[in-house]
Each structure stands twice: as structure tokens, then as C-alpha cells.
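Blackboard transcription, Thursday session:
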Amino acid sequence: MKRRDFFKKGTQGAIGVSMLPVLTSSVSASAPDMADRSADNWQQLGSGKKGIPTRKKELTFDVVVIGAGMAGISAAVSAARNGANTLLLQDRPVLGGNASSEMRVTVNGVQSLNGKHTVERETGIVEEILIENRYYNPQESYPIWDHVLYDYVVRQKNLTLMLNTQAIDAVTSGNKIVKAICWQSTSETEFVIKSALFVDCSGDGLLAAKAGAEYRTGREGKAEFGESFAPEKPDGWVMGDTLMMISKDMGEPTPFYPPSYALKFDAEKANDRAVKQFKEGFWWVELGSEFDVIAVRESNRHKLMGYMYGVWDYIKNSGKYPEAANTVLDWVGSIPGRRESRRFMGDYILSQKDLEEYRHFPDSVAFGGWSLDEHCPGGIENLSDPPSYFHARFKQPYEIPFRCLYSKNISNLLFAGRNVSVSHMALSSTRIIGTCAMMGQAAGTAAAICARKNISPRKLGTDFIAILQEQLLRDDVYIPNRPAADSADWARKASAVFGSSTISGDVKLLYDGYSRDEAETIHHWEADGVNAELQLEWEKPIALSQILLKGDTNLQRQIMMHKNPEKNKNQVKGVPPELLKKVSCEGRINGKWVEIATVDNNLTRLIKLSFDTVNVTAVRIKLTETWGYKNAKLFEVRCYS
Amino acid sequence: MIKKVLSLFFALFIGLLFQNFGGTVGVSDNVKLFAHTLSLSDPAKYRPDTTVYTLYEARGENGVPTEYYMDVVSVYCLDEVCKVVPVRLYWNMMGDFVKYELRNNNKLEKADGKPFSSKDYEKLQTILSDKNSPLRDMAIGDILKTSSTEGVDAISGATTLVIDGKATIKGATLTCYTLWHWANGLIKQHIQSVTGSILTTNQLTAFLETGELDEKLFAIKQLKIHKAYDAKVAGLVLQAMATEELAKEGLNYFEQSADEVYFDAIAKIAANGTDEQVKICLRSLAGSTKKATPAYLNRLALQIARQQSYQMVDLYLELMDKKDNRTAEVVAGTMPLLDREILIARRAYWFLQHCDLSKAQQQQLKKFERENKDYL
Ligand SMILES: Cc1cc2nc3c(=O)[nH]c(=O)nc-3n(C[C@H](O)[C@H](O)[C@H](O)COP(=O)(O)OP(=O)(O)OC[C@H]3O[C@@H](n4cnc5c(N)ncnc54)[C@H](O)[C@@H]3O)c2cc1C
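(Written on the board underneath:)
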């Protein structure tokens, strides 16, 4: 539903209830101008004043990001870091979307590849967050995780966060969104937000849909994209929502009495829905819809609660799991996590073949590699099918083009996360959170560049894609088959580069454009021990103000936290030991070495040494200390004026 | 974490029966068997808790260990019920895997419950002998993971293959993984330290002359532990330092020696060594607390003018800077560099700026400064 003339209608009070969002209980049917309190009998007892509080605000930004799941957070932070005055809108009290304490989905990424690298971890913003979480939240508490995210977001320059605020409508002009209409439930305030660019990372995409952006729901048939795993004929099924849970051990037998609404779990017929552990929930407690998964959210939620307790009842009371006698539910979700609803159409629809053939796109901006993990239609109400088909795994990461991340018909609208322009089958892999977050970083960076250049995302994609890709690579995103070639980088123009004693790799690899070891080729330099040094030398003095390093966080090892501590087995707790903790840099100014920057207690793979501009003929980077590993290791060095 | 060998035990008995796989029996006379107790963690377990194992050493007549063996267990799981089979692994005196042996009619099985075929047994020998197997870099969790599921059902005993077929036996990935890590893991260091403690200095130096790279590295390490620094041994170590790896190990050896031995070795390498070897020496010298005399450093500085690469020049001058050795001899050796390519010339210029120079030298420096303003 478009609202080109929202204000006219608004003042006449002509908008009926059907046009208002279903999800927000506070929106009154007859008063779309929600700040109007003229009829209130409202008295401030302290001052004795009577009056009408103004609760309608207009704000203007360069970029508005809707939804603060991991995709939205990545989009907003990257837009802000790239200079755009950015707003991040989130309709829940916490950040993280499916990954938040409200839903507790694990932040997985590219893993279980069937190749030399089984894990090909995402770098950039999502990695920064996961490392911070290991540092600030060693207890792996979900509520603390929420606040790790909160701190990460609120401390960013150029970024405004609004929680409990839902984008409920769009005002459009031509094929552009001009304003987002938002409702902040806690303060009963309506926000009208103008912006040059909108990035819908809300999963469901209410704002984008209201703006008239083209989207699909359901499953494509085999024929459309030649997808071997797709159903013969297209249908309306989407993957479902799921309620999670976490248990704990009481140390003594403790009974469980199911609630009245529990639904019996028919384990005999459950087809691969095996109960192998009692520690965390079961992803297959899932319900989708054949017609409109959004419309049935509340009834599905109720049923999911019933199924969840039903499974638990089976575990506790069927007699089959005496090992669970001491186990009790400690946390249960109340808001189901969401896998799939609207998929918005961009200039390209990524499909199964693109993934399987590892198609190279000139406008790639992200990668994926989770298996084709398509959940069965109907979820737990379709026991005859396995909960997921696990169609196939990948050998290596596949590419995701920028054309999937903006709307084909709304010219200033971008997307990231599970609502982007992919087929249902491709979504069965791309929906994984690490992948969603990388799309977020790409979309946010793109939005900032569009705002700066005053161009549309499409124009950015066709005329300036190299600018976007180079910025992403600089900000530590990895794009398969797209090495960096930044002409502004002085490291590539150095006359001599050498380091202290090498144990593996080569200092030359530090400016070859690749900032990670790929399965078949290495791109690192590892010194023999810590306290290592790296020197770059130029023939003539150059003006420098920043040095960027990419350190080692072991991208073949996972770092996310888990609901089930057992799953940390293969990981290390805390900051990756390989990562450099202390780094400093000297510049040779007029023949003398002068310390120009130091970073201590470093938590990021991308290490930024920034300083006031100096004229140097050489720099000497001192890699003083790691978080535990015996050698200093780098993947990239860049120098900028 | 390397747990040290606890002790050398008694000779068990003389004339031990060696049983090869397949049941052939060989008798070896005059072999003594020694037992060494080790605390090791099972490579197939997630947790690093250690168990005590006995490593048997067979020692030949000449007092040299000929072979080691240890009994480990291989694990395979079927429907979450795991079965363990004892396997005996053999290594040579350097700790390199030689062969495995199943005793008492034990048999290995695959995930589907089928026994190993004779082909499988042969393949296992090939897999375990491959030091560079992809199994080396894999974590146990990679092996146990089935498919990427969203949830928790990812771990199961029924392993699926995630590495190329050559590295494992289908249906027995976990067995291959476990045994490979037993055969090629930390045990090597344990065996080397046992062997090293038994061999004499003469036996060790023999490796320096004829051994493979691995043996040379081993010998140098052991000679350091033996504190063997007489002129002959030191000379052989110096000769052996032909590759970068050996040069590093050699430097470790010399760093523990008396000052004159250390300085002498470095001077010799500086005079004759490759750039890579010299770099290692100069870095060692720069970081060393051993006191080099000005005369020694002056002699070293004679090398400066012959350096071809900028990095080498930089290293030498950094060293002289660091040791505060800006003597007339060093100046004399550095002045000619002002005529070389700009990076080298400029480095020399900056060094010379802080030295006491003659009038003529000062003028030369001024001239350089005038002509190269843009580069400074
Ligand atoms: C139960 C379950 C298990 C899963 N398991 C895994 C797994 O193990 N690993 C993995 O990586 N992925 C898993 N997935 C998939 C993954 O969680 C999602 O695909 C991913 O979280 C999508 O991220 P997103 O940022 O696009 O959206 P979301 O995480 O859905 O975030 C969108 C946010 O936007 C907010 N929002 C929505 N509408 C509006 C609006 N109009 N205004 C303001 N805010 C709005 C929402 O409240 C939400 O917080 C699972 C999904 C589910 C449901």
C-alpha cells in the first residue's frame, strides 16, 4: 500500500484500520496522527500544567536502515563508517533479530564445506562483533550478547539507534521512497523520517512492501531457473518459524508437567527429527505457511509453543530418556525466529545453479557457502518429510552479486539479509547469518556511497562498482575472485618491503590484494616469533596518515557463541590467540625513526593505525604481542595519505 | 604441550619377538626393550586430559635405539555406540611412523559394521605414512560433522567424508584420523628426546655429515642439549647450517655457547654465508646481550660495502647504530655507499650524519644532500 499523500489523508483522519500495521497494538484506528493529544484530559501534577504533549517528530538522515538483525546492524554501521548520517530502526527492545536473546539463533557462517577449507569464516563487521562478544561476554550469556551489540552500535559515530520503533509505512514519490513513517511504542511517538536512501533489513520488509517494491513469496518451480532441487511446480510454501529453548541440569530428578496447550509429539513418525541432546532447542520445531506466513504468525506462535512443550514432554515423560531426568527448561522463547517471508526482487535473482557452479559476477560483494539446507514445507506438521532436505554442500564459497541487494523498481531502496533477491532454493543457503551480515555490510557501504554521490544503487552497480568493492575490501570484507587493487594504497608502490625472520609465507603477499589464505593459495606472512618488524620504504618522501593491517583470527576456526557449551569444543574461548594484541608504527621522518601510532589491546582483524599526516620515507611496523600465539602473522598491509 | 619423558626403565628381556602384520615372526637377538612412561592426550578426544602410556624402545647392540612402539586405541562409532580396537604403532629412532600392527586377532571395522578388507589395511598403511596428509590440519570436529544443519544435530558418530578420498578410508574416517594423529603427532618429539638422550656426541655429529634435513635439525638440537661445543663439533654445526632452517637451528645452538665460539661463528657466516644466513646472524647479534668489542664490529663492518641489497645494508647499519659503533672504520666502509642506488645511498647518508667525519667526508655528505633533496 502506497501512501504518497499520507499527510492529506492523515489530517482528515481518513485512514481505516485495515491500512494500519497489524503488529503494533498501540496504533489507534481513528487517529493516524498519533501525536494528537488534544482530546486528552492530561495534567502534569508536578507543575499543575494542562496541555498537549507533542509526540510527532520529523527527522532527516542520509541513510535509514530498517531492522537491526545482524544484516541491519552491519548495514547501519558500515553506512555510518563510510560517512553517511545514518539511522537504525529496530522494532524490538534488543538488537540482533533472530540472533538476539529473544530468539537465540546461532550466528553461523560458511562452514561444512566439502573442500580443503571446511570453514571459510566471514570477516568485517560480523567478525568484529563476534570477537568483541568473546572478549566482553566470556560467560556466553544471551542478555549480555544483546548489550555487546548495543555497545557496538551506540558508540559508532554518525549512527543513531531507535529501539522499539517500527517502520510501518512509506511515503513515495514516483519510484522513490521519500519518508518512512515509524511508530515508537514506548514513547507513543510517531516519527516521520526523510532520507535519501533506505535499506530494508527487516526480514519481512513491511516498509519495502508498502512502498510497492516488487517481491515474491513461496517456492519457484524447477523450470524457472533450472533448479534441480526445486519442486516441479511453483507453490506458496516458505520455510517456517521456530521457537528455541535452553535447558539446565538440576543435579537431581526434577519433574516436568506440560502446559494445557502442549501438542503431542509423534516421535515414531518424526522422520529424522531425532532427539540427540537436551541442552538446546530443536530447529525442527517449525511451522511455515503455504499462503501467507506473516498473516498466521500469531496462530503459528501459539502452536509452536504447544509443539515445543510437546517435544519436551516426550523427552521428560516418555521414559525413553532417563538421562534427562535432572534436566529442566531454563529458558524458552516467546517469539519464534523467522526464516523466510518476502524475497524482494532486484536486478538479478540468485538461484541454485549460480551457487553450484560458483558463478563469477563482476559485481560480487559478498559470499556464502552454507549447504542447501531447505526445510520441508509444513515443518513439524509434515512429519512424513525430513525436517531439512540438506540437498547438497558446497566445495568452496559462492559469490553474491550487488544486483541482489537493491530493488528493481524502487530506485532508492536496498536490502540485506534474508529478504534479498534470491530464489527460495538459494535462500536455503544464503539465509545463514554470517552471509546475511556480509550482505548488510555491502548494502550499507553502497548506501553511503550513493548518498555521497547522489546516485541510485543501480547507477552505483553499473558505473561505480569498483568503488564499492574496493571500499569493502579495504574494510576487510572478502570477495572471492576479486583481489583488491586500490591505487591510493602506497604499500603497493613501495620500493622495498622486508620483515624480520620469516617462518612461512612472504612479505610480498601482504600487498597482493588477497587478505586471507584461500584453500589453494596462501597470502600471508608469518614471522618467526613475536616482536617482529615489517619495513616499507619509498624512494621519495610520501605523506601518510593511516596504516591498515589485517591480522590473523584463524578463519578456518569458528568463533560464535553457543547455547550449548559442548559446541565450543572446536573453538577457542576468548580473543583468537593468533590475533595481534599490540602493534606500533614508526615513521622515518628526515632520516630519524619516530613513533607515529600505537594500538594496544587490539580486538579487530583490521588494525587501523591512524595519525596526523607525516612525511616519511619509510615506515617500520612493530608487531609486538599477540593474544597468545607464538608468531606474528599478517595478511595485508596498506598505507594511505 | 609437551610432557617430558618420565624415565628410562629397566631392560625387559633380551631376544624379543617382533611380530609383523600378517603374522610373520622375526627374531632379533641382542635387542633390549626399555619402557618409557608418557602422559599423552588422545587426539580423537575433544578434551586435552592426558592418560599415561608406555612407549617401548628397542635398543640394539651398539646402544642405539632401533625402533619404538606403543599401543593406542582406534575408535569407531556405529549408531552412537563406539567400539575401541587396540592398535600397535611403530616408529623409527627419529620418531617417524613405520608400520602398524593388530594383535590378538583384533580387526578394524567400518561405520557400516563391515570389517576392513585387505585393501583397506594396505591403504591404512599408506595413509599413516603420509606426513603431509590433509588429516594433519583438521580438527576432530571437522571429521565428526555430518552436514551443516542449523541446529545441534550436526555432531554424530557416523562420519561423512569431508576430505579427499585418498586421505581416508570410506566409513572409517575417524579411525584414520585418530591413528594418523597418534602416528604423526607429538609422539615424534617424545621419541626424539629419548633418542637424543641416548646417542653420544659422535653419533649425533655423524648425522650432521650424512643425514637428511630432519636428522640434521635433530642433531643440532640435541648437541645444544648435550652442551657439545668443542671446536670440531662447532665446526661441523657451522658447516651444516646450509639452509635457512638449519641456520636458525644452528644459531640457537651457538647462542648457548661461550662468547668467543658465538662471535667466531657469526664472523665466519658474515664472511661466507648467503644473505639469508647472514640476516639470521645479524638479527641474533643485534638482540644478543653478549658484548661484541668495537674491534669485532669494525671487522664485521668490512662486509658493508660489498652488500648488494638494501635490506642487508640496512641491517648492518642498524646493528652499528644499535651497538653505538660509529667508528672511523665503519665510516670508511660506509662512505662508498653514497654512490649507490638511492635507497642504499640514503641509508648510508643518514647513518653518516651521526658520525664524526673528516672535512672531505663532510663535503661529500653535503654534496649528496644537495643532489638528492627530493629523496630525503
Ligand atoms: C529457528 C531458526 C534457526 C536458524 N538457525 C540458523 C543457524 O543456526 N545459523 C544461522 O546462521 N542462521 C540460522 N537461521 C537463519 C537466520 O536466523 C536468518 O536467516 C537471519 O537471522 C536473517 O537475518 P536478518 O538480519 O536478515 O533478519 P532478522 O534476524 O530477522 O532481523 C530483522 C530484524 O528487523 C526487525 N524488524 C522487522 N520488521 C521491522 C520493521 N518494520 N521496523 C523495524 N524493525 C523491524 C525484526 O524485529 C528483527 O529484529 C535460523 C533461523 C531460524 C528462524
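Lecturer's comment: The longest strand of chain B covers residues 25-41.
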